[in-house]
Amino acid sequence: MKKLISWVEIPATDMQRAVSFYEKILDFKLEILDFGAEKMACFPSGEGAISLAPDFKPGSNGVLVSLNAEDDLDGSLVRVKDSGGQITIPKTKIQAEGRGFFAVFVDSEGNKLGLYGN
C-alpha cells in the first residue's frame, strides 16, 4: 500500500521557533533551507516540511494532520508541553480495536495537529 500522506507543509511565522519545537517533540534535527522570502525545513522522512512564506499562515481550524509518535506518544506529549505547545485533546484510546491512541495539540505557531501512537 502507498503511504496515505504524500506531503504536508506546516506553516510558521517564526521559523527558528517552529524548527526548535519540532526538533524537540519528534527528536530529530532539521535543516532550514533559505529561499529568500520563503524558508523550508524538510522532515527526514520526505513526507513534508515546516514552511515560512508570506501568504502561508498558521491556524488552528484548518486541516488536521497527524504525526506518527508510535514509539513514544507519552514522551512526545511531554515534549509538546516543555516546548511551549498546548495539548488540546489528551492521549485518548481509539475506539477501533488495535488502532492505538491519539492526541491533539497546538504547536508553537498556532497550528492544530494530531499525534498517533501506542
Quick take:
This protein has helices at 15-26, 73-82; strands at 8-11, 32-35, 38-42, 48-52, 65-68, 86-93, 101-106, 112-117.
What order do the helices and strands come in, and which of them pair?
Elements: E1 8-11, H1 15-26, E2 32-35, E3 38-42, E4 48-52, E5 65-68, H2 73-82, E6 86-93, E7 101-106, E8 112-117
Helix pairs in contact: 1-2
3D structure, described in words:
The longest helix is centred in the N-terminal third of the chain and has 12 residues, at 15-26. A hairpin with a 7-residue loop joins β6 (86-93) and β7 (101-106). The protein has helices at residues 15-26, 73-82; strands at residues 8-11, 32-35, 38-42, 48-52, 65-68, 86-93, 101-106, 112-117. The chain is an alpha/beta fold and 118 residues long. It has a single domain (8-117), classed as 2,3-Dihydroxybiphenyl 1,2-Dioxygenase, domain 1 (Roll).
Secondary structure category: alpha/beta
Given the structure, what is the number of helices? 2
Q: What is the radius of gyration computed over CA atoms, rounded to a whole number of angstroms?
A: 14 Å
Shape: globular
Which properties best describe this structure?
single chain, 118 residues, alpha/beta, 2,3-Dihydroxybiphenyl 1,2-Dioxygenase, domain 1, four-stranded mixed β-sheet, 2 helices, 36% strand, globular
